[in-house]
Amino acid sequence: MQTVLFTSTIFGPIHSRRLGTSLGVNLMPADGKVCSFDCLYCEAGFNAQGPGTKGIPPRSEVARLLEDKLAEMRNDNLQLDVITFSGNGEPTLHPDFNGVVDDVLLLRNKYYPEAKVSVLSNATRLQSTSVVEALRKVDNNILKLDSALDETVKIIDRPVSPGYRVADVIEGMKQFDGQCIVQTMMLRGKHNGVTIDNTTDCEIEALINACKEIAPREVMLYSIDRKTPAEHLEKVQRDELEKIAQRFINAGLKVQVS
């Protein structure tokens, strides 16, 4: 079984297709998965592997480990484009996410003031005032929306909460008044006999309409790049992504394809 991708709280730096040279911050356990989604394509595996035994790292430990790494990188004259909240689950589930963001911003300013701070979130915690406040502070508030149709999200992303509704997520994203980036994984295939395809005309039209309502700074379209826990998923090739992107551009949206 495919298991957690990151075995430490601070990882990298790695090269991100979308963000450049990135130092990762994993706010979930280093030996388990904790997430409010259970995506078929998640590089960290399915939630069924469990939360592990190490637990969620406390705020003070995150700050200490990050400062150690940033000081080491600065001493070695290494480049850093971005510090990215990612890892073995949904970062905004950390009980002190807002405080951790404050610490990361202070350390960024101290060691790499030119670097950006990004959060990769599945947008399931936008009902939390504290989470929204934290996301407003970062440079790249990247929010997942793999489909604007509830049934498709339930198939691809498999929200843990039975009350998940795309309409609620869209309303949550609108709080940022354009200071967010919508990220969409484009894919097709089958899982447990169910056909998956969020590249159809119906899907694209619904997603464009949702993005026009959200009015994000940018839309990121990408596809599978690594092994996925669900085995029968297909990557959407770049030329097709470019064609899909053009439909967003024609609707007045800024798009990045990677």
Brief descriptors of the model:
single chain, 258 residues, alpha/beta, three-stranded antiparallel beta sheet, 11 strands, 21% strand
Give the overall shape, derived from the CA principal axes: globular
Annotated CATH homologous superfamily: Aldolase class I
In order across it, which strands form the biggest sheet? Answer: 1-2-3-4-5-6-9-11
> What's the number of helices?
7
Count of DSSP E strands?
11
Characterise the protein shown here:
This protein is an alpha/beta fold and about 260 residues long. The chain has helices at about 60-75, 95-110, 130-135, 150-155, 165-175, 200-215, 240-250; strands at about 10-15, 20-25, 80-85, 115-120, 140-145, 180-185, 185-190, 195, 220, 235, 255. The protein has a single domain (about 10-255), classed as Alpha-Beta Barrel (TIM Barrel). β7 and β8 form a beta hairpin. α1 packs parallel to α2 and α5 packs parallel to α6. The longest helix has 17 residues, at about 60-75.
Give a quick precis of the structure.
With 258 residues, the chain is of the alpha/beta class. Helices cover 33% and strands 21% of the residues.
